[in-house]
Design brief:
The chain has about 325 residues and is α/β, with parallel strands linked by helices. It is about 30% helix and about 15% strand. The strands form two sheets. Strands 1-2-4-3-5-6 form a six-stranded mixed sheet. A two-stranded antiparallel ribbon has the order 7-8. Helix 3 links the parallel strand 3 and strand 4. Helix 4 crosses helix 5.
Length: about 325
């Protein structure tokens, strides 16, 4: 965004060391490794024959320092309004594959990128000690803005963000409403822009108190028996990248189980409002959200691996489709 500058950001390790927002660092920095580390045979062709015929895969170079992988539909005719779809974690542009033909049939040019840190998009650094600034929401807003411009558009007709894509979409609308006039936010409501201390020029006193609720909850969960941990806290640890990339059951089986327990297929999912924001209430959540402390995420979900019959009967994520994520 022209005219907006950001001071150099600390590394992830320094953020955690000084006790700052470690959970926010986890949510703004996916743990899995970059496509730049994968062999060439792993990046072509895309989709293993599972993409709808109307959807194509291609790379767009030079997007705010990235080479961005996109899926698109409705590209055959020029002049169509642009619908930009931003995925969440742990997802890919591929997650929009069933929605894209529907929007294309409605008259849109539909584009879904692998966001910074995900999939085949490269140009980002996945070192644990790398600066966090490139993964900040304003820089990811720049990613979206640069992609829109590279595609030859002055504005989007529709911007949809799911999960982590939701705050990115929200900041797109806040920062550049001329480019992003209409947004849909899925699964993650927008809490608003940050607050700054007000009218402190004379007194010097801060009117904004730090929110320590997350740290208090983490400490209370750790004191339970057995001790528990919020999954975002786990994702901020230096060992999480290796543990998620190389789970003992293999990456394919881990992802199958992880997606299974987050779905309505798993009988253990019984969504209901929590009665209070206490550690005891949070501990009732499934292990993929409130983990058993001392165990990795793959170890936490392993007991809930679906049966062979469950896998065969899963129509929303076939084995071939799961192989794209793997």
């Amino acid at each position: 965004m022209p005219g907006f500058s950001i001071a150099p950001s600390p590394s992830r390790r320094s953020v955690l060391t000084i006790g700052a927002a470690g959970l926010l660092a986890a949510s703004s920095r996916p743990a899995l490794a970059s496509a730049k580390d994968r062999p060439a045979s792993a990046v072509s062709p895309y989709g293993i024959g599972t993409l709808p015929a109307e959807v194509r895969s291609r790379m767009i170079r030079g997007i705010n320092g990235l080479d961005v992988h996109i899926l698109e539909a409705g590209f055959q005719r020029s002049g169509r309004p642009l619908a930009l779809l931003l995925h969440g974690f742990p997802d890919l542009a591929y997650g929009w594959r069933h929605v894209m033909p529907i929007l294309a049939d409605a008259g849109y040019h539909v584009v879904a990128p692998d966001q910074r840190g995900f999939g085949r998009t490269t140009g980002w650094v996945d070192d644990y000690d790398a600066p966090l600034e490139p993964f900040g929401l304003l820089n990811m807003t720049r990613d979206a803005l640069a992609l829109v411009s590279a595609l030859g558009y002055r504005r989007t007709a529709m911007l949809v963000g799911h999960d982590f894509g939701s705050p990115v979409a929200a900041y797109c609308a806040v920062a550049r409403p001329d480019v992003f006039p209409s947004v849909v936010l899925m699964s993650a409501p927008f809490p608003g822009v940050p607050s700054f201390s007000f009218d402190t020029a004379k007194t010097g006193a801060s009117s904004v108190q730090p929110n320590t609720d997350g740290h208090k909850l983490a400490a209370a969960l750790a004191a339970l028996s057995p001790a528990r941990m919020i999954y975002q806290q786990y994702l901020s640890l230096p060992e999480a990248n290796h543990e998620l990339s190389h789970p003992p059951q293999g990456l394919h089986r881990f992802l199958r189980t992880f997606f299974h327990v987050e779905s309505a297929d798993w009988s253990g999912n019984r969504p209901h409002p929590l009665q209070a924001p206490t550690a005891e209430a949070f501990a009732q959540l499934p292990n993929y959200y409130i983990m058993e402390r001392g165990k990795t995420l793959p170890e936490n979900v392993a007991p809930f691996e679906p049966s062979a019959a469950d896998v065969m009967g899963c129509r929303w994520l076939t084995e071939s489709e799961l192989a794209v994520y793997t």
